[in-house]
Automatic annotation (TrEMBL):
It comes from Mesorhizobium australicum (strain HAMBI 3006 / LMG 24608 / WSM2073). SUPFAM superfamilies: MTH938-like. It comes from the Bacteria. This is Mth938-like domain-containing protein. It holds the Pfam family DUF498.
Length: 130
């Protein structure tokens, strides 16, 4: 009986994992540390560097939109402060059938972990905080 081998993907943790800690400009998950922002998708956790974290664009979410059929809820950790998502981004997510919820990164991490534990179709885009 042939089993599936391990698939190695560049800059990608191939699985879903709760975020164990955040701060100091990065995150800890799956007994690993990552410096910088993260995008947590059903296909795994990716390093994510939006061009301007203060002005997110649709292009910053291309990877997420490619998996839109697997995502119902997107939590956006906006850093320390809550800011609304730009209208064009909200519209693109809505058109893809994804409910978006901007919040502070800390709140997004906590909410992501709860929804992940409930096995929900959740994704998170988390801007690193110091």
């Amino acid at each position: 009986m042939a089993g599936k081998g391990i698939i190695i993907r560049e800059a990608h943790f191939p699985g879903r994992a709760p975020i164990e800690a955040y701060g100091n400009g990065g995150f800890r998950f799956a007994d690993m540390s990552h410096r910088g922002s993260l995008m947590c998708l059903p296909t795994g956790i990716h390093g994510w560097e939006p061009a301007n974290p203060q002005a997110l664009t649709v292009a910053d979410f291309d990877r997420l939109l490619a998996e839109a059929d697997k995502v119902e809820i997107l939590l956006v950790g906006m850093g320390r402060d809550l800011r609304p998502l730009p209208a064009a981004l909200r519209a693109a997510l809505k058109d893809a059938g994804i409910a978006s919820d901007p919040m502070s990164t800390g709140a997004a991490v906590r909410t992501y972990n709860v929804l992940l534990a409930e096995n929900r179709a959740v994704a998170a885009a988390l801007i690193a905080v110091d």
